[in-house]
Amino acid sequence: MSTSFYVEEITAGIGAHGTWKMKLKTAITTASSDFKPSVVRCDDQCALGKWLHGSKIDAQTKLGMPYKVNKRVHAEFHECAARVLELALAGKAKDAQALLDGEFKERSEKVVRALNKWKGELLSSTKAA
């Protein structure tokens, strides 16, 4: 795959993950959601996860550290998002909000940093070539 393909997918992933905070805030406020924690916990159901777990990334890239790091932090993000959602759906708004403002925020920022780092490495390798 071309570098531009990877950059486009990474950029889309960053944007899509930004919307999770709003979805979870709504779940906390309403104690309801269209999403189930068991599905949110799976890191291969969102667009970024489908890409990371799918066949569009070549085997060589999957052996690299940027891929491995991004796959790991993405899975950790989904685990935390599911826990926020479980608390929200259980009516534990205060606990859910605390988790959202704490660990979830950290994990979300970590995903964005890792994706941006990967994207930067891809772009700099293109310029060096």
CATH topology: Four Helix Bundle (Hemerythrin (Met), subunit A)
Which class of secondary structure composition applies to the elements?
mainly alpha
Q: Could you give the order of the helices and strands?
A: HHHHHHH
User: What is the makeup of the main sheet?
Assistant: none
The number of domains: 1
State mean pLDDT (0 to 100 scale): 93
Would you give an account of this structure?
81% of the residues lie in helices and 0% in strands. By secondary structure, it is an all-alpha fold. The chain has one domain: Aspartate receptor, ligand-binding domain (Four Helix Bundle (Hemerythrin (Met), subunit A), Up-down Bundle). The radius of gyration is 16 Å and the shape is elongated.
List keywords for this structure.
129 residues; mainly alpha; Four Helix Bundle (Hemerythrin (Met), subunit A)
